[in-house]
Specification:
Chain lengths: ~240, ~240
C-alpha cells in the first residue's frame, strides 16, 4: 500500500532524511518512533506529499507521490491524515468540518455528506457535539472529530502524526481507543507515536528512526523484547522508565 | 476673535447660481461616498488576491504580489493621483489615450476611484498577508491532506479565518479610504473638500464651512467603523476568542 524507497531530504545543507526505506502492506499497522528531531514527522508528511523530498521514491497504492505528473489532491483525498494539533477548521461547526471535503472534493451531495459525517461522529461517541465549534471541545474530543473527518473521505489508509502528543494525559486513552478499534478492523495505518502500549497492542512492525535514518524496522514483538541497536535500547529505556 | 458668525449660511444661495451652499456640500458628500465606496470595493478584491498571492509557495506569484504592494505604497497618494491623471494616459496606445483624454465619462471620478483603490489595495494586501501568516501552518496542511487544491484551501479554510483576524486593521483602512478620498479634489473631483474650498471662497464663511465638512467626514468614517464592528460581531466564531466587548 505504502512503498518508501531510499528517500532523502535536505533543508539547504542539512540532511533531515537519509535513504529511508520501508513499506506498509494493506491492512498493516506500522508504528514509527524515535527521539524528537529524528525525522519521523517529516517522513510521514512525505507520504502524502505535504513535504517534498529530494531523492528516492514513494508510492501509495502504486501511485508515485514525487512524480510531478501525479494529481496530488486526488491522491491525498484517498489518504487520511491526523495531525498532532488536530487542525480542525475553527470557523466551522463539527458537522461542517466533517462535510466540507466530502462535498467539495468528492462531490457528494450535502445530505449524503452530512449523514456520513453523523454516522462517524456516532462511532467516535460525539454525535451530541455535532453543532459545536472545535473551540468548544476538549483536545481529546477534537482529535476524535479529526479522525472522523479523515474517515469520512473513505480513505485507503490513514497517516497519524503524533496524534496524542498534544493531549492531556487523561484524554490520550479515548483517542487511542478509537485508533485501536480502527486497527482491529483492518485499516492500513502508519502512525508516528510514542505510545508504546498502542504499538505493542496493534502494530505489526515498528520503525525506529534517529538522525534522519531508519535504524530498525522490525516486527513489534522483536523490537520491544530485543532491540537490535544501542540507540533503540537507549530510546526505549528513556520512554518506558517513568 | 473678530469673526462674523453666520450659521444660516448653508441655506443661502451661492453667488453664481440658484443652488444653496448646502446643495454644494450634499453634492460633495455624494462624490466623496462614490469615490470612497468604489475604491474600497476595488481595494478589498485586489488586496485579498494580492495578499493571498504573497503567501503562496510559488516564487513568481510572491514576486508579483510584492511588486504590486511596493509600487503602490512607496509613492505619496497625491503624487499617484497626478500620475494616473496626467501621466498614465500619455503612455497608453494612441487610440486609448485619445479616448481617455477626450471621451471617457466621469474621467476625474474614474481616475480617483482607481487610484485610491490601488493605493489602498496595497495596504489591505499587507494586512491580509499578516493575517494569513498568523494561522498555524497545519491548517493549510490539513486542508491539502483532505484533497483540496491550494486555491480551494484558500477559499474554504485560510481566507475565512484570516479575514476574521484582520477585521480590526481593515476597519482603520476603510475609515482611511473616506479620509484619503479628500485628495481627489486635486484632480478636480467635486467631492467634499473641493466643495468646501469653493464654498469658503464664495461665502467667506470659512469656519462654518470647515466645521460642517469636518462633521460630515467624521460621520462617514464613524459609520464605516460601526459597520465593520457589526460585521466583526456577526462573524465571531463560538469558542474561538471569547470577547464580550
Amino acid at each position: 500500500m505504502i512503498e518508501i524507497r531510499n528517500v532523502s531530504k535536505w533543508y539547504g545543507p542539512t540532511q533531515v532524511l537519509k535513504g529511508c526505506s520501508t513499506q506498509v502492506a494493506k491492512g498493516e499497522v506500522v508504528v514509527v518512533c524515535g527521539p524528537s528531531g529524528s525525522g519521523k514527522s517529516t517522513l510521514i508528511k512525505c507520504v502524502n506529499g505535504l513535504e517534498p523530498f529530494t531523492e528516492g521514491s514513494i508510492a501509495v497504492d502504486g501511485i508515485s507521490v514525487g512524480d510531478p505528473k501525479t494529481d496530488l489532491p486526488k491522491l491525498r483525498a484517498r489518504v487520511g491524515m491526523v495531525f498532532q494539533h488536530f487542525e480542525l477548521f475553527p470557523h466551522m461547526s463539527v458537522r461542517q468540518n466533517l462535510a466540507l471535503a466530502q462535498v467539495r472534493v468528492l462531490g457528494r451531495k450535502a445530505e449524503e455528506a452530512d449523514a456520513r459525517g453523523m454516522s462517524l461522529l456516532d462511532r467516535v461517541g460525539l454525535r451530541a457535539h455535532a453543532d459545536k465549534f472545535p473551540g468548544q471541545l476538549s483536545g481529546g474530543q477534537q482529535q476524535r472529530v479529526a479522525i472522523a473527518r479523515a474517515l469520512a473521505m473513505d480513505p485507503i489508509c490513514l497517516l497519524f502524526d503524533e496524534p496524542t502528543s498534544a493531549l492531556d494525559p487523561e484524554m490520550i486513552g479515548e483517542v487511542l481507543d478509537v485508533m485501536v478499534e480502527l486497527a482491529q478492523e483492518g485499516m492500513t495505518m502508519m502512525c508516528v507515536t510514542h505510545e508504546m502500549g498502542f504499538a505493542r497492542k496493534v502494530a505489526r512492525r515498528v520503525v525506529f528512526m534517529d538522525h534522519g535514518e531508519i535504524v530498525e524496522d522490525a516486527p513489534a514483538g522483536a523490537f520491544f523484547d530485543a532491540p537490535a541497536s544501542d540507540r533503540a535500547r537507549t530510546f526505549l529505556a528513556r520512554i518506558l522508565h517513568h | 476673535m473678530n469673526y462674523h458668525w453666520n450659521w444660516g449660511i448653508f441655506g443661502e444661495q451661492v453667488k453664481s447660481g440658484d443652488e444653496t451652499y448646502l446643495d454644494w456640500l450634499i453634492t460633495g458628500l455624494g462624490w466623496t461616498l462614490a469615490v470612497s465606496l468604489t475604491a474600497w470595493l476595488l481595494a478589498l478584491s485586489i488586496g485579498i488576491a494580492v495578499g493571498a498571492l504573497r503567501t503562496t509557495p510559488s516564487r513568481f506569484l510572491v514576486a508579483l504580489g510584492t511588486a504590486w504592494v511596493e509600487l503602490f505604497r512607496n509613492v505619496p497618494l497625491l503624487v499617484q493621483m497626478f500620475l494616473w491623471f496626467f501621466v498614465v494616459p500619455e503612455f497608453l496606445p494612441r487610440d486609448w489615450s485619445l479616448w481617455v483624454k477626450q471621451e471617457m465619462p466621469a474621467k476625474e471620478f474614474v481616475t480617483a476611484a482607481l487610484c485610491l483603490g490601488f493605493f489602498t489595495s496595497a495596504r489591505v494586501a499587507e494586512q491580509l498577508r499578516a493575517g494569513i501568516m498568523s494561522l498555524p501552518r497545519g491548517q493549510r496542511d490539513a486542508a491539502l491532506a483532505l484533497g483540496f487544491t491550494l486555491p480551494q484551501a484558500y477559499r474554504h479554510v485560510i481566507l475565512p479565518q484570516a479575514l476574521r483576524i484582520v477585521i480590526p486593521p481593515l476597519t482603520s483602512e476603510f475609515m482611511n479610504v473616506f479620509k484619503n478620498s479628500s485628495v481627489a479634489f486635486a484632480i478636480g473631483v467635486m467631492e467634499l473638500t473641493f466643495q468646501a474650498r469653493q464654498m469658503q471662497e464664495d461665502s467667506e464663511q470659512g469656519i462654518e464651512t470647515y466645521l460642517a465638512v469636518t462633521l460630515l467626514y467624521f460621520i462617514c468614517a464613524f459609520t464605516a467603523n460601526r459597520g465593520m464592528a457589526w460585521i466583526e460581531a456577526r462573524t465571531r466564531v463560538p469558542g474561538l476568542i471569547a470577547r464580550t466587548s
